[in-house]
Protein 1
Amino acid sequence: MAITHNLGFPRIGKNRELKFELEKFWREETSKEDLQHTAQTLRKTHWNLQKQLDWLPVGDFSLYDHVLDTSALVGNLPERVSQEQDDLAKYFQVARGQSHSHCQQVAAGEMTKWFDTNYHYIVPEFDANTTFSLHAENLISQVKEAKALGHNIKPVILGPVTYLWLGKTKDGSNKLDLLDGLLATYELLLLALQEEGVEWVQIDEPILVTELDSSWTHALKQAYLALNKSPIKLLLTSYFGELKENLHFACELPVAGLHIDAINGFNEIDQVVDWLPSHKVLSLGVINGRNIWINDLNKTLAWLTPLQQRLQDRLWLAPSCSLLHVPVDLDSEQNLDEDIQSWLAFAVQKLDELNILATALNQGKDAVAEELVINELAIKSRQQSNRVHNPLIKTRVAGINDAMAQRKSSYQQRAAIQRQRFNLPLFPTTTIGSFPQTAEIRQARKQYRLGQLDEQQYQTFLKNQINHDIEQQEALGLDVLVHGEAERNDMVEYFGEQLDGYTFSQFGWVQSYGSRCVKPPIIFGDISRPQAMTVEWATYAQSLSSKPVKGMLTGPVTILNWSFVRDDQPRSQTCLQLALAIRDEVLDLEEAGINIIQIDEAALREGLPLRQSQWHTYLDWAVNSFKLTANGVQDETQIHTHMCYSEFNDIIQAIADMDADVITIETSRSDMELLDVFNEFNYPNEIGPGVYDIHTPNIPTIEQIVELINKAAERIPAERLWINPDCGLKTRRWEEVKPALAAMVTASKVLRSNSAAA
Ligand code: GLN
Ligand code: ZN
């Protein structure tokens, strides 16, 4: 019998109930009891949706983040949280600096991306004196809750070694020195679960798919030797990739079962089956937990059937990873095209697929004959649909050649031409694109969407907004202006909506962090651009000023990384299609007289594979796609790009290879320390290190900006420096933006006169 289970279910609720309840709680509009009640109701609903499974996850639910839950579980909340408050208040204080609007504020825990996903976790904090103690009340009460509802459950916990790996030491001590103490706490935890009658525990060690040095593999051995003393059976769980060099080692760790990602690690399945000792269970993650496409069930069954014959009762089936990364229920969708809807599966549908597979294996295909036929028809319709496949685009992609991705001349030659053309001062000032998205702007967009504003009225509104933004920038004295992006709700969705090959869900929310969710647009088919997307706004803005106005686009890699991407062709192919569509837009802007064009690649870095050995393959096609987008222009046209981070020490060569004339990056918070990379690496083109931290309401002073730029000028020649904020200004208010930009402009004048005097 193949056994079914789930690694984790989305927590936020199909109508984002948890989000709304949390935000109410933080605003003090609801009580702790109400919040706990909502959480309990959601868990109950989610278990009900999973009840056909043999084992249901418990402990996968979280009020904010499961890594923070683990910190609370092992008694490792930072000491700065105020002790005179209840556990929940402490928890939220770490998560977001404060528990509710009126309570004391402390520094929130740092947040970072969970492996290669768009989910962010709260980074555990350690120092040499960190001790651990068990606080399992929360988990145990959820175990009791599920059992009281009659469910067969399998608690889910984050493994001790991954927990340490994800954290940061504040004092430079070695995290692994803390392992013994942590293991003692995990042993107590297993004991507590044993007392609840728990038989299996899923223990997640996703670091098994990363490159581990021997101290970490040693830690894993030590951990599982220690935890193996418990009579509880451990399902050691890895996901998000292949085990590769860790494969033999993972198979041999002393646990009762191993879960592997059979989507990303498909080529390793046979090896794992060969290596796994015969007393161990093998759980195969056969349903993709990272995308929203249906599984080809007949194809999956074809390779699973012989495996089941080999493994018999040792075979478990699950999604590849937690379903946290997909929306809850496709049945909520009312507006999707019928064909496209039949190609999609959200969390609930993915679990249905799992059950169909298990039934087919356990009772024979006839038991699910109808389901298999429906699946086969949907798969065929997707494969053959002319909405997916556009031969013209495939031909165009096949015709891409190297020359298309190269500028006509070198940066030095271009820079000379551009200097003449734009006649910009030293230390030119600019912004990253968006201006404050006021309540008025959001209101107008909403009214337009609801049909309360007609096309004409909405256009007039946007033009007035552009008038306003240009006036403000002229008054401030900025050198290179922008139109302000008032028409854009989101830098990816805005383009997706105008491209063919994209569709949008109504309720396809995925948790990004805490109560924040994103609704990634869905790329289902070959991408094309039916008409120009931004030219009208850019040319209108340019008509209002004698200063250059930048055209503003989102780059192909960022569009790709922030969408649900089709799985029937390599990501690199989809990226090339996006690149061609945005390239056409670049050329249209140039043709329309827009001479400076910015192509944002905010998400280029986050597409990096988990293993460094695979970075170059990704960077090759990602950089090539950017170049294909940008580099069709004449030497006179200045290409800018923007990236929302500054840790690019390890990818600096790739960024230089993009060959943008100007790059703007985020740096202000790091005090330009992150520019250290330019001590060794001679960045060849122009660069605007951010001098205004737009993540806080703080206004930088003239002196601070001058000091930052002077630091930057120690590494990059002044002629190649720009002055700009860290990122777009859409989340800020005009009252903050005006003085901050005024300080920037004054600082640039100070710098110019200093350098003239020197
Ligand atoms: N041009 C965009 C803006 O200014 C860039 C946003 C981003 O990089 N995240 O909002
Ligand atoms: Zn940015």
Protein 2
Amino acid sequence: MQTLAQTLTSQAVNSSLTALLLTLANTSKAISGAVRHGALAGVLGATEQENVQGETQKKLDVITNDMLKDALKADGNVRGLASEEEDYVVEVSKQGEYLVCFDPLDGSSNIDINSLVGTIFSVLPATDGELNEQSFLQAGRQQVAAGYVLYGPSTMMALTTGKGTQFYTLDPDSGEFLLTNDKVAITPDTAEFAINMSNQRFWEAAMQTYIADLLLGKIGPREQSFNMRWIAAMVGDVHRVLCRGGIFTYPTDNKNPAKPFKLRLMYEANPMAFLVEQAGGKASTGYETIMDIQPTEIHQRVAVILGSRNEVDMCLSYHGLDYSEEPTID
Ligand code: FDP
């Protein structure tokens, strides 16, 4: 089996991007160790701090953010970084060719229940001139690489450099990420959906109708039964979609009108959209292709509908309906 470094060489990825991706992979091995030790290492539970988005930071959010920040600072190829856990963008090295956006530990609510969590990253080209938030505000189409590492029963990396999506599995014996799927392909059709159903009453009418039709199964307009899954960590839900197809969505809702979207564009939606598109799937907000969005701020949130191409198209067709009638809020 090919190692990650061998695969990147065979894809003719340049040396600076290869070095950066190996830094991310090596850091994720250390994160995997910290996650695995759990309570034994005293890393579970919350801190007393909140991130810029008003979420209480877990100890592991802070530890893994520091691990990635330190590793990327030492790498030499990074011009700047942006993280879910950093209020502002961080300047790293004037010589660096790349910008890295990351969510150090996605699925924070799963940490203390020993369930799936992961690291998500997106690599953009550095721009000329001073480094500031504006430098990062590039559409997802500009990404040169994106991926996630899933800390599950085995530690796996999904990675794209624009030449398909590959899966690597961390070999606990050699400590190497080995190529275990060189051409991930999302099935175009599916009978499985992932959504937090408890928010149903807060969704737009388009999503209400689409999900209601899935739930009707064989007696509804879709004339087939659908299964539902919700891991509550985007890395876990997207990994399942990449493995066996499906549609994953965190749609617009009006639970808190000041916060109509949950997932972050720069370090959740864009990297996942790149992986999904490279595996033959599709990613949209319902109204725009995720990777075509021109970002306006680093911690911007968006609605996400992604996965099996034909099912995403079906969901989008509901968004073309006239749904001026707002759902009832209790
Ligand atoms: P979390 O807040 O636990 O980090 O990043 C946001 C996210 O997890 C996603 O990973 C996940 O898909 C979603 O939120 C879970 O949302 P719910 O709490 O509504 O289930």
